[in-house]
Amino acid sequence: MIAAWRAGRKPVNLALWGILALALTIGGPFGTYETVDIGTRFVYWILVVPVSALIGFQVSYLVEMIWPSLPLVISDLVSSMGITIIFAPIAWLLTQAMLVVPGVEVPSLSEMAFYVFAVAMAVMTGRRLIPGIEKRNYLPRTHDSKRPRLLKRVPRLIDAQVIRITSQGHFVEIVSDAGTERIRMRLSDAVDEMDSVPGLLVHRSHWVAQEAIVASETVAGKAQLRLRNGDTVPVSRTYRGMLEEAGVA
Q1: pTM above 0.70, yes or no
Q2: How far is CA 167 from the centre of its chain?
Q3: Domain with CATH 2.40.50.1020 in the chain
Q4: Distance CA 148, CA 98 (A)
Q5: What is the DSSP string of 10-70?
Q6: How far apart are the C-alpha atoms of 45 and 228, rounded to whole Å?
Q7: Is it the case that residue 71 has pLDDT exceeding 90?
């Protein structure tokens, strides 16, 4: 539950979930405004909203980690199906336990699954359409005059997004979403030429783009980062403090 925990502890998400739960309580959808008291409605939505969001964050993280190269639409469909399989029964049981009163018809489990899938897909699509919310989105990439200076050395990657840079003797390996190139230069100079891209030096031989980080892990007692292309990069003790300050480790 790493991804869900990180999402849940962010004040902005806690605030948004509280506001949404309050709005749904006051609005009383599905006929509950007239039939269920405000206290019960509030308890119901304060459970449903954060639980569904946390499940959504975790399922999306797992899909990105297991199948990092899936097309966005397929990735979101798979994530929405996973969310539906896990959360629809929970939502249905909560509804049966808290909102069932005489004269009120509640959704069946299949109807609840449809609602959950539709909402999950709508939320994921909406987040993909808002720049800066998700690491990958549906919007076409536009020319950016602030492209990293490093990529001017590698014309084939000029419009690519750099995932990591690794030192290999007198060379550096540039790994991007458009392929890998190896050029002769020092890692420190390469990092200087990535100044327009938020990134972190995580090891004396490795720099990673911050937006490419999927998870922070510990394997056999050693810290490492998992990147969106499936690569793993070691994290040395020297740089672990900076990662913690950046909210990565």
Answers
A1: no
A2: 28
A3: 149-245
A4: 55
A5: -HHHHHHHHHHHHHHHHH-TTTHHHHS-HHHHHHHHHHHHHHHHHHHHHHHHHHHHH-TTS
A6: 33
A7: no
- Cβ neighbours of residue 162 closer than 8 Å, sequence gap 6 or more: 148, 150, 151, 174, 175, 176, 194, 197, 199, 209
Across the chain, the runs of DSSP E, i.e. the strands, are 162-168, 171-176, 179-184, 199-203, 206-209, 213-219, 222-227, 232-234
- 189-239 residue pLDDT tens: 999 999 889 999 999 999 999 989 998 888 888 889 999 999 999 999 888
- Res 100 pLDDT > 90: no
Domain 149-245: which topology?
OB fold (Dihydrolipoamide Acetyltransferase, E2P) (2.40.50)
d(CA 199, CA 196): 9
143-180 CB burial, b ≥16 within 10 A, e <16: eeeebbebbebbeebeebbbbbbbbeeeebbbbbebee
Kindly report, residue by residue over 18-35, the tens digit of the pLDDT.
Answer: 888 888 888 877 667 777
The span from the CA of 84 to the CA of 90, in Å, is: 10
Look-up: residue for tokens 């925990």? 5
Residue for token pair 């419009």: 159
pLDDT value of position 129: 82
Say how far apart CA 224 and CA 235 lie, in whole Å.
5
CA distances for 27 relative to 36, 48, 215, angstroms: 12, 15, 37
Strand partners, 218: 223
Q: Residue with structure tokens 């899936």? A: 70
Instruction: State the pLDDT at residue 81.
Output: 96
- With tokens 């509950």, the residue in question is 32
